[in-house]
Amino acid sequence: MNGRDKNDIIQVKDLEVFCHHGLHKEENILGQKFVVSVSLYTNTRKAGLSDEMTDSVSYGDVCRLIKKEMTRQNDSLLERVAERIVRVILLEYKEIDKVKLEVKKPWAPVLMHMDHASVCIERGWHRVYIGAGSNLGDRAAFLRLAVKRLMNLEDCRDFRSSDLLESEPYGYKDQPGFLNAVFSLDTLLTPWEMLDRLMEIEQEAGRKREIHWGPRTLDLDLLLYDDLVTEDPRLVLPHPDMHNRIFVLGPLCQLNPYGVHPLYRERYIDMKRRLD
């Protein structure tokens, strides 16, 4: 995750909930028992020292939340049930960084004997850093648009922004100067889902991709997603050129100066000093 020291676990095993989920009409009418087990990754140190419930996560409240979410609507698939439960727990409890969950269906209609069918998933918060730039039109207004959209992005929280930075064009020189910033936030989205959201915001700002590194109303680059390293043709992480860009490292160091580059194992503040 994000180095937040939330590796303690509060567990609930085999919580029974009667509700109505399944592909078949009879399952949605008659209902059946489902069994849920959940592991909540948090930090129990403070509660362990204080012995105060206010310093912990109430597993009783979590159980009631699971039951409420499972009985709120009927779903066809266990996968959907599991996603909904995990999402609502993570959004409800800021103290919880990650959730592992198993939803069992003891009487799955397969016309053969088996103990149960189940779906197991693991979801959690991820720290994302986004590079932003504009050099066409009202540059500050386009960056304000990005801030507004990112602050209100579903399944995201804890948005932060660096100061704005004036910079010379990079790569393609025959164009106006840029106004740059770096944003950070925590998200439940996958890297590719986050990339899609960023491209939607660019499109709203009228972004046109005509010249490589050319002028743009708004450019949003996914710089970092935790310490994830990818070589996906659509998304390379960490951003392959961020260590060469002072207009990225400068704002990034306002938010996370002592973070370490996942590939080069060098602190961002030291990378910035070398470019300076």
Strands, helices and their partners?
Elements: E1 8-19, H1 25-30, E2 32-42, H2 45-50, H3 59-70, H4 78-92, E3 98-105, E4 117-124, E5 126-134, H5 139-151, E6 156-161, E7 165-167, E8 178-187, H6 191-204, E9 219-225, E10 230-231, E11 236-237, H7 246-255, H8 268-275
Antiparallel strand pairs: 1-2, 2-3, 3-4, 5-8, 5-9, 6-8, 7-8, 10-11
Helix pairs in contact: 3-4, 7-8
SSE run: EHEHHHEEEHEEEHEEEHH
Strand content: 25-35%
Helix-strand category: alpha+beta
Total separate domains: 2
The CATH class of the largest domain, by name, is Alpha Beta
> What sort of overall outline do the alpha carbons produce when their principal axes are compared?
elongated
By CATH, the topology of the largest domain is Alpha-Beta Plaits
- Quantity of strands, as a count: 11
Mind describing the biggest β-sheet?
5 strands, antiparallel
Q: Can you tag this structure with a few keywords?
A:
alpha+beta, GTP Cyclohydrolase I, domain 2, five-stranded antiparallel sheet, 276 residues, Alpha-Beta Plaits, four-stranded antiparallel sheet
Characterization of this structure:
- The protein is elongated and about 70 Å long.
- It folds into two domains: 117 residues, 2-Layer Sandwich (GTP Cyclohydrolase I, domain 2); 150 residues, 7,8-Dihydro-6-hydroxymethylpterin-pyrophosphokinase HPPK (Alpha-Beta Plaits, 2-Layer Sandwich), CATH 3.30.70.
- Helix 3 crosses helix 4 and helix 7 packs antiparallel against helix 8.
- The protein is of the alpha+beta class.
- The chain contains eight helices and eleven strands.
